Amino acid sequence: MLQFLIEIILFRYKLLQTCFMRTIVWIFLLLYNFFYLPQCNEQSQMKKFTTYLILVICMIVISCSRNEFIPQEGDIVFCVAESSAMSDAIVAATAKQNDLQYDHVAIFVTVDNMAFVIEASTKKGVVYTEWSEFLDAATKINDNPGIVVMRPENNIDMDKVIESAKGHIGEPYDWSFRPDNGKMYCSELIYECYVNDDGTHLFNTKPMNFRDEEGNMPLFWIELFEKSGESIPEGVYGTNPNDMSKEPFLKEVHRYF
What we know:
about 260 residues; 9 helices
């Protein structure tokens, strides 16, 4: 039981976020069980060691699965759309047939060597979210997170990108989907943070469309803006995860599914 208690403690304090760290812990536990636990006769001890070695190898293999890919700072993380009223409305208005459909996007960062994203969350506004929590919350595809990591190939100052993103922490979610109002929706955060050296934005904006392929306005948008007392910002220039993902300067570097 000791090994599992140690793992729980280390996971609690986010010390097992990498395959390397988990491998070190399991090797330590293997040596501990072999050298420091009460000794049996030589045959029993060797049988015990072999059994535990097999267990450790299995745990390392599981721990070092494809989900262990860690993005670079400034990588852009796209979430495959799940089924919800808001996601369905976003996808209906922005997705193209036969493409992966995204309903959320975030920026990968590290803080004190621990992995996070900075995201504009509908529930919390602009926040840090632990990478493991972000992966766990993603739509599952074949039991793996529906996450795609993309990287700008442009020569952009990522330090400035991250600093800009951090400057938006604490801002509320932008349910108005309008620019320059002190609020942020997910792709708006990306747009505002990725800026070239000359001050121009890396990503393009376009007149926003909230209608589905048949030209109908989804009930979600009608009810949302009726509650806020605002008009639907149809035609206002803005962004969305699906259009962002198709920018030619983005290179897909990993899929978790």
